[in-house]
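ASSEMBLY PREDICTION REQUEST
Request ID: AP-0331
Submitted by: J.K., bench scientist
Number of chains: two
Total residues: 830
Priority: normal
Notes: Please return the full assembly, not individual chains.
Input sequences:
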Amino acid sequence: MKSSPSRGSTAAVLAFVVVLVLGACAPAQPGAQQQSQTGPEGSIVIAAPQEFLFIDPNVGKYSTDSNVHAALFDSLVDLDKDMRPQPSAAESIKSISPTVWQFKLRKDIKFTNGEALNAESVKFTVERVKRSINPQYPQPHPDYAGIVGAEVVDEFTVNITTTAPDPFLLGRLVRMYLVPPKYIAQIGESTFNEKPVGSGPYTFVERVKDSHVKLTANVAYWGGAPKIKDVTFRILPQASTRVSALRAGEVDIVPNLPPDEFDATNKLDCCTAIGRPSVRSPFVWIYPESPQGGGDSLKDRRVRQALNYAVNKDNIVRFVLGGHARIVSTVPALSAYGYDKDLAPYPYDPEKAKRLLAEAGVPNGFTVNFEAPVSGITIKPLEVAQAIAADLAKVGVKVNFKQMEFAAYVQEKDKKAVPPLFLWSWGGADYVDVDPYLRGTLYSKSRFSLTNRPDLDALIDASVATVDPEKRLAPLKALQRHVHEEAYFIFLYNQEDLFGVSKRIASWTPTADEIVHVETITLKK
Amino acid sequence: MTGFLIRRAIGSLFAILGVSSVVFVILHLTSDPAALLVPQNATEADYARIRETLGLDKPLPLQYLAFLSGLATGNFGNSYRYGGPALEVVLERVPATLMLASVALLIAITVAVPVGVLSAVHRRSSLDRLATALTSLGQAMPSFWLGPVLIVVVAVTLRWLPTSGGGTLAHVILPAITLAIQPLAQFARITRSEMIESLSRDYVRTAHSKGLAPSVINVRHALRNAAIPLVTLVGLSFGTLLSGAIITETIFGWPGVGRLMIQSIAFRDFPVVQTAVVLIATIFVAVNFAVDVVYSYIDPRIRLR
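STATUS: Completed
Returned structure:
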């Protein structure tokens, strides 16, 4: 049947419209105008509580410098959001023998001066971190002491050898930032600090000491150009000024937000507050052999356990820290590999505490010295210590409390002159495993330990007897149970790091490695 | 006159030496920087090696001799934290502090002297009473209170000025005001009381009877005599401003020597602390020396001594 002219023309118009619409929706032709794929744009300012000491990443290993290092450089491994090492500049990693790890590198990484990042760069970096570039530090950072050296297998394959089987090597390499050998040979070792060149998402623009560090985006970054063009780290040592700067719109991210400011910051129009679990845990160190005296009763395990039952950790977390902490069973952070989730923390039970004290022969309690620092890693250390002191008094343990200036406190600890009870924090941005928390504080051969127990040492040794992560879980469990039973410390909680963030920022998730990964931040349009 | 100046110069050198020696002894007897420089997982051997590298394992008298010979040759050692020469670390930050202290002093003098003179001339008027009340308030306002208040009101709420940092003239205003308030109040009160004292003197009555204009009397005769104690106070205050800047610099994130001092003390960075102390003592002593010279110009009686 012949279609009527109107239906024919309608069809034609429809077809025309459909073609037009399809044409408009079609993806742009290569070379033709792109759909809003502009380069990095915008700028952000991040507050830093302390001055940056070295832009050269191989000199010291100060965690306060890491924000800048992570932006400028790459390393073989990175930490994912669960704090597990993942390949980064290295494409694949395998342990080819208990003391040799083989890294196959990506082939597409270039330093911003054009030099390729290859096995030679890795070897050079390994040798560099084991040297003394800075006359003040004549030995490598202890993290690298266990590394023998690196060997080039082929252009993009390198082997790293350790003195003994080291299950934590990958964690240690996270901050071994890779540097360009040819460039450094050209400009000289010490100049690298003034004119750094890396392969990371950002390049160095300028540094004004005590004031700021400016970086700008590296559009050729192998991981994709970052979204934000200019990043400035501004040094603001005073917490209240950092918060004011956030409110005034002068900075976009403020770390170390005091817990008391958290709710107030969330109520503002300009900003929000975010928290994320830190890798640091405070605890009360129990030191029965203290030269200050008064610690004899603490030699009895029941007394130490009593102290653990006596402290109301929930109240401290709720009222002193505004809920920003998570109670742990011993010291390691909840994110630490091998954390025993089945081990319950000591509950609050003052009656049980009193019973244990009576069983141990001190039914009326005793008096003991207790110290806490006024500043340092622990958040609100004096308030926390006072809350603990009040709880202990309720079961008859009276404390003579003294507050200490941080450096004097560290020295007192160094000389092992600290009292039988003192507040301390442990943990570091590279602590991805249960081991360093307990080894550093309790292993008799550790410089900072105040404990000498062969049974404890044996458990720590057993947990590193193999590099196989699966096989380590059981020894790590046994170790944590022992530490928990023996109550070497009054265990508390895992802190939360709090950040004030401007609403200009569209997305950013803080990571437990204490680094602000600037390449992951995006701004709202 | 020259003898007077030479005697003062030698005295100044002894003062600087004395101050630095006291600081040296206190630092070395009470602190152990090595304990703060080793990471948590360091070994005993690492610790011993750091002490050796920094020369901290030598007996104290030997360390003191090394320090003195360093002072004499201008070698202040290397910063434990920054690694580079301590003198460089300190000198980089001195201009910022000098700028802050100078602007603060300028603000203090520019406001205090007219206020003090007017209060004295119009004694017991409501202007005088207001000024007295305000200066009492000013003397009671510590910088660690005033600073954050100014930041919140002027920078955060009104957004007239930046909250912190250094670099431009806008950045120096709030910290300079914070630093200036207490000296300003002091200067105003001293100016006022000294002016009142001068104005009651015979020579002022003589000047009046000679028919001189009040403004000439007030400035050329009364103020010039009142200026002597004021000049002393200003000189002493400059030293106080330099040290008071520590708190203000930390609050405002001003990149000066004060902030460096606080952090270096907290980290027991001996060379930097010692260098900063020597430098500030030198500036202090130099300013007082200058005050003495100005003094002898204003007051001929001193010249003749």
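REVIEWER COMMENTS: The first helix of chain A runs from residue 5 to 25.
SIGN-OFF: pending second reviewer
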